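To fix ideas, we reproduce below one chain and its tokenised fold.
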Amino acid sequence: MTADRYTGPTIDSHIHFFDASRPEGIPWPEPNHPLHGSALPDTYWQLAEPHRISAAIVVEASPWRLDNHWLLTTLRHSPRLLGFIGNLSPFDAQFDQDLSHLEAEPRFLGLRYGNLWDRDLLDDQTRPGFIDAMKRLAASGRTLDSANPDPRLIKGLLRLSDAVPTLRIVVDHLPNAAVPEGQLADFQRDVYALAQRPNVFAKLAQIPQLNAGALVTDPGFYRDRLAYLWDAFGEHRCFFGSDWPNSNSLADFGSTLQLVRQSVADKPLAVQENFFLHNVGNAYPLPTSTERR
């Protein structure tokens, strides 16, 4: 194992913002959910700054189309927020108009679509308009983030990548993929096949795990779980995301980051730096500092 652990500037590629005090409320987290309330920039930076988080990317936590604009307005007040992954449905009558508006924003990095919000990527891409929408997203230079990985989602991403080979795809939360018993070998085979496409990336968020209700703190446990992802995607297409505030249900922010750092501490320092800082720029069209003003 390397004697050096990367502790330098880090880009957190996966956080969520919401505010239940808005007059219209929020669709998620629901009122009875432990996270119901607010998750906003000031709170995030109070937690993240002591751990050398230098910048972050926000992923939309709402299926409401107008919440893209709320999120964009929220980002404008924090220059360290590099951008956001929005949410639009290709089947919405206003999709083209909404995407045109977002495309004019440097901080708009892409759209999220997967097995979330009653969607099914495998089935939905067979419906009229979906592939055309993904071709337009690819032409804009933006990225597709997936959601809630399981065997069906990976098969959907394989099919979509074949249909739109120029589309950059980020597979979220692979360390915590929901794989039914007996399907792991087939699932990993499909992940390896997906990773053969050079414009597909692995966002290693949701790394911490519980066992018998307690947080697993053994770095070896996590290294074993992540080994096939490092092997499949390589050192230039894996990158870090905290999944804050969802991560609070497992561990506080500092513990989450410490576990992730320990889980990759066997890699050369340059590889760790790529994971925490540089690789995210390969996956997303990050705006320049001038564009962020």
